[in-house]
Amino acid sequence: MARGPATGASAERAEMALYGIYEISKLLAMPARLEVNLAGVLSLLSSFLDMRNGLIALLDDTGAPEVVVGSGWSEATAKRYFERLPERAIGRIVVTQTPLVVENVAYDPLFSEVDFSTWGPRGVSYSFIGVPIKVEDKVVGTLTIDRNWSGLPHFRFDQDVRFLTMVANLVGQSVRLQRLIAQDRQRLIAEQHRLAKAVEDTVRPLRPIAAPTESHGIVGDSPAIKSVLDKVRIVARSHTTVLLRGESGTGKELFAQALHEMSPRKNAPFVKLNCAALPESVLESELFGHEKGAFTGAHALRKGRFELADGGTLFLDEIGEISAMFQAKLLRIIQEGEFERVGGSKTMKTDVRLIAATNRNLEEAVAKGEFRADLYYRISVVPLFLPPLRDRPSDIPKLAREFLRRYNDENATRLALTDEALQVLTGCYFPGNVRELENCVRRTATLAHGPNLTGRDFACRNDGCLSAMLWKSTAREVVPPAGFQPLPIAPQAAPRPAQAPAPTAAAPEAEWPTGCPAPGNCPASAADGKSEKERLVEAMETAGWVQAKAARLMGLTPRQMGYALRKHDIPIKKF
Question: Which pTM value belongs to this model?
Answer without folding.
Answer: 0.50
